[in-house]
Design a protein that fits this description.
The N and C termini lie far apart (about 115 Å). About 85% of the residues lie in helices and about 0% in strands. The protein is rod-shaped and about 120 Å long.
């Protein structure tokens, strides 16, 4: 198998550069572009996280407000019941 492979290499018109994989060369321009892309991506991720946090805070605030409203309604209902009880007590006597 090795011998057949060596024979193919010797008879092949392809050069060693064509056979081997090209090694990417990163110059200063490409490096700068990569850094910019990475920074942009990080900024986008940070913005998304901040937006998610804001949404969560808003949802929590809304839930708290709803709970407070429910508590106030319950208190009002209890007051109304007490008033009705007082009225019935005074009217019955």
């Amino acid at each position: 198998m090795i011998k057949s492979h060596l024979d193919w290499i010797q008879t092949s018109p392809a050069t060693l550069a064509e056979i081997s994989f090209p090694i990417p060369c990163i110059g200063p321009k490409e490096e700068e572009e990569q850094q910019q892309q990475q920074q942009e991506q990080e900024q986008e991720e940070q913005q998304e996280e901040e937006e998610e946090e804001e949404e969560e805070e808003e949802e929590e605030e809304e839930e708290e407000e709803e709970e407070e409203e429910e508590v106030v309604k319950e208190q009002q209902q209890q007051k109304n019941k007490k008033k009705k009880r007082r009225r019935t007590k005074t009217s019955s006597t």
